Structure formats: C-alpha cells, structure tokens
C-alpha cells in the first residue's frame, strides 16, 4: 500500500481538495497558487476549512487553538512522503505570528495523523515523511514576478523550519 493510500485511510475523504491549484478567497483578497504541470508524482491535497466547520470541537475557543493551515499537499517520491503544509497570506507575509502558529499547529496535526495510522496497524514510518511548513505571501510573489531574472530557488528559510515560498506555482522538484 502506498503512503498516500495510508493517509487516505486515516483522513476522511470529505476534506480532499480536488483541484490543480490552491486558492484562498475572501471579500477583499484572492490568491491562487498553481501546481506545476511538470509535477509527475501522485498527489493528494487536503483543505480543512474552519470557516465552514468546527475542526476541533473538543477544544475551547482560545485564540489560535482551533486554527490550522489552508492546505496540505502530499506527494510521494523515492519512497518518501512529502507533506507541504501551506498557508496563503495577504500582503508581505500577513501576520507572521498567526501564520507561524497555524503552521506549527498543522505540523502537530500531521504528526498525529501519522501516529494514528501506525496505531491502527498501517505502517507509515515517520522517518519516511518529509514535512515542509510553507508561507505564501501575496506581495513577495508579485515582487518576484516583476523581476527581470528568474529566481533559482523559491524556498526562502525564515527560521523554525518555516519557509517563504516565493512563486505562484509549486514545483515538487524544489523539495528534497
């Protein structure tokens, strides 16, 4: 059984996001990140939309406690499961404090999913899972689009294993 199939057995199919792009829409903000046509790996995208449902009904309404990231993009390559936790933000980086808390909470959630798979007898070795916490900033992406020279590496480390992804198209090859 593939690693993606294991994840599909753990996370309910209601949360599968079946598009070739990630999109955030609000009355005053719209952002779209495409998945590169050059990506050949099998993938799964999950979206847990907290505006339409209560994600963690057992938690109180404490600030930042019930928030996770916009999208989880998963793909397999070379017997590894890559998990791209993705938060789309308006402006330069939006509220980095909020985005970073969402990225950290989302990392814990994915670790729980992996441990849950193992708990029910599905073999998913944590060492075979490579997790990236990504912020997509509208202003950074627009600035990069206007540059005359193309950027070689769209991943920009921000500390705490968080990366600013400075492109409007996700290329799986960027992730090692």
Short description:
This protein has 176 residues and is of the alpha/beta class. It is 23% helix and 31% strand. The strands form two sheets. It has a six-stranded mixed β-sheet.
Could you name the key traits of this structure?
six-stranded mixed beta sheet; 9 strands; 3 helices; 23% helix; 176 residues; globular; alpha/beta; three-stranded mixed beta sheet
Q: If you compute it from the alpha carbons, what radius of gyration comes out, rounded to the nearest whole angstrom? A: 16 Å
Largest sheet, strands/sense/barrel: 6 strands, mixed
Strand content: 25-35%
Structural class: alpha/beta
Low-confidence stretches: none
* Helix content class: 10-25%
Helix tally equals 3
User: How many domain regions?
Assistant: 1
- Total count of strands: 9
Shape: globular
Kindly report the spatial arrangement of strands forming the biggest sheet.
Answer: 3-4-5-6-8-7
Question: For the residues shown, what is the average pLDDT?
Answer: 87
Distance between the termini: 23 Å
Structure description:
The protein has helices at 3-10, 96-119, 138-145; strands at 21-26, 29-35, 43-46, 71-77, 80-89, 129-137, 155-159, 162-165, 169-170. Helix 1 (3-10) crosses helix 2. The longest helix has 24 residues, at 96-119. It is α/β, with parallel strands linked by helices. The protein has one domain (3-174). It has a six-stranded mixed sheet. It starts with a helix and ends in a 6-residue tail after the last strand. Helix 2 (96-119) links the parallel strand 5 (80-89) and strand 6 (129-137).
